[in-house]
Amino acid sequence: MTAIDSSLPPQEPDAISAGTTATTAVQGRGRIPWRFLGNRALFYLFTLWAAITINFFVPRMMKGDAVDQYLARNRNVSPEAAEALRALLGLDTDKSLLQQYFEYWNLLLHGDLGVSLLHGLRPVTEVISQALPWTVGLVGFATLVAFAIGTIGGAIVGWRRGSRLDALIPITTFLSTIPYFWLGLLAIALFSVNLGWFPIGKAYGVGVTPEWSFEFIGEVIHHGFLPAATIIIASLGGWMLGMRNMMLTVLDEDYVMVAQAKGMPNDRVLWRYAARNAVLPQIQSFALSLGFIVGGTIVMEMVFSYPGVGKLLLDATNAKDYALMQGVFLVITLSVLLANLLADVAYAFLDPRTRQTEA
What we know:
- Residues 1-20 are annotated as: Disordered.
- Residues 132-343 form the ABC transmembrane type-1 domain.
- The protein has a single domain, classed as Orthogonal Bundle (MetI-like fold), CATH 1.10.3720.10.
- A hairpin with a 5-residue loop joins strand 1 and strand 2.
- Strands 1-2 form a two-stranded antiparallel ribbon.
- It is an all-alpha fold.
- It has helices at 15-18, 21-27, 34-60, 66-73, 79-89, 97-109, 124-159, 168-177, 180-194, 214-250, 254-261, 266-278, 280-291, 298-303, 309-319, 322-350, 352-358, and strands spanning 115-116, 122-123.
- The protein is built from 17 helices and 2 strands.
């Protein structure tokens, strides 16, 4: 036997035995894409700074302010009291916009969103915290149900293309084209006025004190069923149409044909191969919907007199209550950015191409 020369450089491993780049990416499928997530986090931090800056300057470019609106409703306020109110709200003219901007950031970092003149100088955080659960509970639940039904239904319709199920697409699309306020008014006229099945509006009955009891929860569900149903009907068509179109694209891919050629059960091919890849674009849209849940549906809350964040924002805008407007916009911005960040994380784990790009 010949001895192995130790002076020779180590040989490169065979490319086939070591695996290609794609094989290495598949083998490292469980690795967390830190670079991708870090880049997205930096992008969202910059977006948050820009949104907060715009949120500060835009209301101050409007004509008049909250004190002017308050003085128009209360003629007996002295000039000294008006100046004190402006100083309390951070609207005093003795400070420049840049000074007010830095003070706003200082208060914001300490969790102080100011006080609302519209609500009797109550803290903005307290006002928003009372309206936020109603919007998240109603609009959030309706959005989740609409997304689940539309995505599953669209996947089934796309899988069985050419069948009678295709009739669901134009029906749901037509319902989505109806203006929401008109759909809500029709629902109130039919189910509340004529049939008397549901209350006309509000989150609970007049004179009822909110409490954690089965009676109160049942009343909240009874009052919220009609607005939730109209939200689901109005948004179902978009989810179903989008998922159905993506299914038609995915079904022509090679991996779906190979899975069917191997004799895999249709249910497994549908849910583990076709629907799993077709749902990826839906995630971004769903993230945006989750973010805008906090903003609420202003039209819905106006039609059904629902005490949510959307109506709160509309009242604050009409009264030019800067502190309340900025607080609501900040909550909406944070919710949208957080929802998009979570969607990017989910996308990175569901789509191997994201991890392969980092590798």
